[in-house]
Amino acid sequence: MTLSQRLIRHGLFIVTAESLTAGLLSSELATESGASAFLLGGVTCYQDEVKVNLLKVDPKLIATQSAIDPEVAISLAVNVREKFALDCSKEIGSVIGVSTTGVAGPEPVGSNAVGTVFLGISSSRGSRSVPLKLRGTRSEIRAASVASALKEIEDEIQALFG
Question: What CATH number corresponds to the domain at position 28?
Answer without folding.
Answer: 3.90.950.20
